[in-house]
Amino acid sequence: HFLDLPEFDESMFDPHLTGAMQVVMDVVSLGRSARKQAGVKTRQPLSSVTVYTHDAQAHEALVSHADIIRDELNVKSIAEATHAADIAEFTLRPNLPVLGRRAGASIPAIQKALAADPERVYGELESTGHASLDLDGTAFLLTKDDVISAVSGKGGLFAASAANVVVAVDATITPELRAEWYVREVEHFVQGQRKDKGYQVTDRVRLALTCTDAAVTAALTAAAQDVAREVLANEVTIATGPVEDGALALELEGSKVVCRLEQ
């Protein structure tokens, strides 16, 4: 049926919530960028993410919507940094083909000023598109095009930044986190097998898993109830053993997992 589009009801618009959701989306986007830098797979859980924001509203959004950020970034906890420099290093250098034409002999002084206060300059360029430098008492206005910038994490962290938000992830993978990744990958694999067999989303099944690596077997055995609940299995059996050549298998860092499903 064709219906008229509903009229906009301004009373239903919540600018505070809209602003908070923008902060959440920015943090999640930067966190995913940092995960990508670290080469960590999406379903691999990580222990923590640390976030720097520059204002009280952004802090409130982090606290109020921490559960969304944890789920989207697949991390166990969120911490906040007091200063961006606590978790990231900012490297700024003049973009000589652009800046050289109007700065000329001031380039050495600009390089010195950039090295002295990179965090402030980077933040101002990201948030407003320009930043002021003090060149021996003379103000010099920079634009984003004048500078080549880079952000890197401190202390083994991987960081990404934009518009006064810095997000850094700890990519250290403990045995416990690796075991959880095994479980999530297997659950995803089994769900794909359910779909390929044409099962309905409510169909209950019996699941048998064969793993070539005892560590994977141990991880799945410890999480057997979670696996059963996730894939709607009334019965789950897990064993270590060889898999047949040519069998459809999930590859996990050199090991294999084969599943058998029955209704």
Based on the model shown, name its key terms.
elongated, 9 helices, four-stranded mixed sheet, alpha+beta, 263 residues
Secondary structure blueprint with pairings:
Blueprint: H1 15-38, E1 46-53, H2 56-64, H3 66-73, E2 75-80, E3 88-94, H4 96-103, H5 107-116, H6 118-128, E4 130-135, E5 138-143, E6 147-153, E7 158-162, E8 165-170, H7 175-196, E9 205-211, H8 214-222, H9 224-231, E10 233-240, E11 250-252, E12 255-262
Parallel strand pairs: 1-2, 9-10
Antiparallel strand pairs: 1-8, 3-6, 4-5, 7-8, 9-12, 11-12
Helix pairs in contact: 1-2, 1-3, 7-8
Notes on the structure:
The chain is α+β, with helices and mostly antiparallel strands. 41% of the residues lie in helices and 29% in strands. The protein has a four-stranded mixed sheet. The protein has a four-stranded mixed sheet with strand order 10-9-12-11. The longest helix has 24 residues. The protein is elongated.
